[in-house]
Design a protein that fits this description.
- The protein has 2 domains: 92 residues; 56 residues, no CATH class.
- Strand 1 and strand 2 form a beta hairpin.
- About 7% of the residues have low confidence.
- By secondary structure, the protein is mainly α.
- The chain has a two-stranded antiparallel sheet. A two-stranded antiparallel ribbon has the order 3-4.
- 60% of the residues lie in helices and 10% in strands.
- The chain contains 3 helices and 4 strands; from the N terminus they run ααββαββ.
- Helix 1 packs antiparallel against helix 2.
């Protein structure tokens, strides 16, 4: 029931439209037949009955268009959200491939970074060797600090272990 809310709303709109059209037809037939018994002109009552059927059916259809459109909007929003999640996962995986890895044991690592460590506003993205969280440090911080600390797991690793 709550898995496909947009589809449920659209089904309710279709059902409401069908009920409205059926009621208009029944009411048009009843009104047309009642007036034909009491009036001298049978053609006038027939026209009124047909008008009730046509106008009632049209108004029933118009009245559920907003509800049906709302269901369509919810359904499409769910599809877009799903596509965004897939795109985020794809981008995250691609971004992780570009990150610098910190290798352990840190004692054997050498301070080798392919990018020059100049400029305080430039950042280096890397993965924590303990918890795997994505970290971002300024190049100046990496250059000046002996140890870097992961804010996620609170473990430190030497800045010269960045390869």
């Amino acid at each position: 029931m709550f898995d496909n809310v947009g589809g449920s709303i659209k089904r309710i709109a279709k059902f409401a439209c069908a009920v409205g059209i059926v009621c208009s037809i029944v009411l048009g037939i009843i009104v047309g037949s009642m007036w034909s018994e009491t009036s001298r002109d049978g053609f006038g009552s027939f026209i009124i009955g047909v008008l009730i059927i046509l106008v009632g059916s049209f108004m029933s259809w118009i009245s559920v268009l907003c509800l049906y459109g709302y269901g369509e909007l919810i359904e499409n929003s769910a599809i877009i959200a799903e596509n965004i999640d897939i795109e985020k996962k794809t981008q995250k995986e691609a971004h992780k491939k570009k990150l610098k890895r910190v290798e352990l044991p840190p004692e054997k690592s050498v301070s080798k970074t392919p990018q020059p460590l100049d400029g305080p506003d430039e950042y280096i993205d890397l993965l924590c060797p303990f918890c795997g969280s994505e970290l971002s440090f300024t190049k100046q911080t990496v250059k000046d600090s002996k140890d870097l600390t992961c804010p996620m797991c609170d473990k430190s690793f030497p800045s010269n272990s960045i390869v």
